[in-house]
Amino acid sequence: MKKSLILALAAVMVVGISSMAMAVGNGNGLLNSPHDFSGRSWNTSGEICVVCHTPHNAKSTVEGLIWNHEMSQATYTMYDEQVSASLDGTVDDQPTGIAKLCLSCHDGTVAIDAFGMAGTSTEFVPGFAEIPAQSDGTNEDLRSTHPISIVYDDFADLQLNVATDTLMGTSGFISDVLDVGGKVQCSSCHDVHDRESVAGTALLRVDNTDSALCRTCHFK
Predict the structure, then answer these.
(1) Range of 8-22, 111-125, 175-189 with top mean pLDDT
(2) What are the residues whose beta carbons fall under 8 Å from the beta carbon of 169, sequence distance 6 or more?
(3) Which of 26, 63, 101, 204 is most buried per CB count within 10 Å?
(4) Percent of the chain surpassing pLDDT 70
(5) Is the CB of residue 51 less than 8 Å from the CB of residue 68?
(6) Cβ atoms of residues 43 and 78 within 8 Å
């Protein structure tokens, strides 16, 4: 009797763990995604991951992600209270964490093929993928895009849904897609490692029909 009960409990646990695993990302993966550069002529190894990550001799230890791509040296004008008086919270002086990694290609100042020892600086992100698209003098201007490098403070801002209770599509809860320190970064809305997280979108975690992605976080 005890043995049967133990086996039954074990089965329930396995099903539960499997369900949790399914809830984190949709599993389409990098192959044939917008971040699959394995077929580019400049990628002589034919590897997918090596453009961004390497198991040895990384160029940067940002967030411990063994980053293999050249980092941008640009300075940025950040989103702040002068842009929106309703902004609750403080944006970092410059992009931090994962946002810095995204901007190493997407600010348009560093070539996609500037990685490892093979960077030749021949291919840059297309204009539609360049963030920011404006400049503020010598700075890259991030004021026209959603604030990044800002703490998701659902305790102080009652117009934010509770991060630990609100699902972010199939990626788990909002709290699961925040960066170190509970910060909103590019990857909070975009699943950079999944092909067509939501079909026909720029790797969004949630279909934004009827502003569903916006309303996932913002209580409006």
Answers:
(1) 175-189
(2) 197, 198, 205, 206, 207, 216
(3) 101
(4) 83
(5) yes
(6) no
Tokens of 160: 């934010």
Task: List helix spans (H) across 73-211.
Answer: 97-106, 186-189
Tokens representing residue 158 in the block? 């009652």
Q: Are 156 and 120 in contact (CB under 8 A)?
A: no
Q: Give dist(CA 68, CA 60) in Å, integer.
A: 7
Per-residue pLDDT averaged across 87-100, rounded?
91
Q: What is the DSSP string of 68-84?
A: -BPPP---EEPP-TTT-
Residue type, 19: S
Percent of the chain with pLDDT over 90: 55
Residue 21: which pLDDT band, with cuts at 50, 70 and 90?
very low
Q: Measured between alpha carbons, how far is 47 from 182 in angstroms, rounded to an integer?
A: 32
